[in-house]
Amino acid sequence: MTDASSSAPSTVTVIGAGPAGLMAAERLASTGLRVTVHERMPSVGRKFLMAGRGGLNLTHSEPPAPFLDRYDAPARERVAEWLKSFSSADLTAWAEGLGQETFVGSSGRVFPRAMKASPLLRAWLVRLESLGVEIRTRSRWTGWKDGALSFDTPDGERTERPDAVVLALGGASWARLGSDAAWTPWLEEAGVAVAPFRPSNVGFDVAWSPLLRDRFAGQPIKGIALTHAGRTVRGEAMIAAYGVEGGGVYALSAGLRDAIERDGSAELTLDLRPDLSRPALTQKLLKPRGKESLSNWLRKIVHLDPAAIALLREGEPLPTEPGPLAARIKGVTLTLTGVQGLSRAISSAGGVTLDAVDERLMLKARPGVFVAGEMLDWEAPTGGYLLQAAFASGVVAAQGVTDWLQTR
Ligand SMILES: Cc1cc2nc3c(=O)[nH]c(=O)nc-3n(C[C@H](O)[C@H](O)[C@H](O)COP(=O)(O)OP(=O)(O)OC[C@H]3O[C@@H](n4cnc5c(N)ncnc54)[C@H](O)[C@@H]3O)c2cc1C
User: Fold this and answer.
1) How far apart are the first and last CA of the chain?
2) 362 and 315 fall within a common domain
3) Model confidence over 229-258: pLDDT tens digits?
4) What is the pTM of this model?
């Protein structure tokens, strides 16, 4: 694709070198476009590398319908279109194409065998270089000046007037990794609707007793079922000094956050032995305790670890009768009183509204400017769904740019 007046290739500026921006850059450069990526941090992909610390859960292996159900309802239909362009199988094949063998974990999550992001990122940067992508780090986009993109760089201000732009500036969580949402007013001034950022995949405050906080903060409660407002998920919760976090909590975090914003608090119920029915559990608890302490006896006959037993004891005395004790084990209710902030959230909800972009992800208020990744307003739990949508939207935005340049 070339610039009609000069027969030089059209130029595209990608801003933000996270998964969404780099994927857009790869796709754009593969079609022969001249691509420059600007990144405000001294190096690229910092949040991607941070995700690698947890093993880099790239995507999930479940079938399309349940996969799609993980995305919050208002955005789900749009995300479905992105996943048609770049599915979880495509993402896995892409990682394998970069020499990163992948495997499906016991929970269905997909990881690279290396269980980190750095080898994948290194191989990706080699590919981008071979495609002629120019990456400028320490180059912070500061908005538009007289219609040109303006960047703050170590050599002073720099402006660019490319043929098309992809904005992939990330959300608003973990700002120290680069995505600080400072761009919000510049887009709003350009007539783009931006929904306020809110923490997602985040922990919640619980007023623990000093004993539980001091002895059990940092300990996981594994293999439990968590329920809020009629929705139940299997997973784990992690006791934190401030309250509770972990995969199972994150899976319910959107609803819990909304309930706390609305009502001031929210109830989260934990079933500590979800594989045993209440009658079956009651039956086990009929076994005589003898001289054993209650804790030891519970550990032996229903396999509860000390942290789970401490949870049972929070707030009120532990019942000793088998029926009420079984009911408590299958229904520990925590009152969540607050939401941790954006700086501690794994991701954010909010951002450029999906009504502000067309199906190609081009800003309706700013033709030629496309948006991808977490800076768009969609939300999903951890489990690979975040990276999957970030990558897929980068693919869609790149396709949108090439289509738009052709029909312009
Ligand atoms: C601790 C942690 C663990 C995670 N683990 C997982 C996981 O296992 N699986 C999963 O699916 N997801 C995970 N995520 C989420 C995932 O990393 C993000 O959803 C994903 O990185 C979003 O990609 P993105 O490209 O949209 O944005 P980002 O990765 O945030 O990239 C945006 C880039 O834009 C740059 N930028 C911002 N403003 C400017 C500007 N003005 N000028 C120039 N550059 C700018 C930023 O510096 C940044 O590099 C995790 C997140 C965290 C914090």
Assistant:
1) 12
2) no
3) 999 999 999 999 999 999 999 999 999 999
4) 0.95
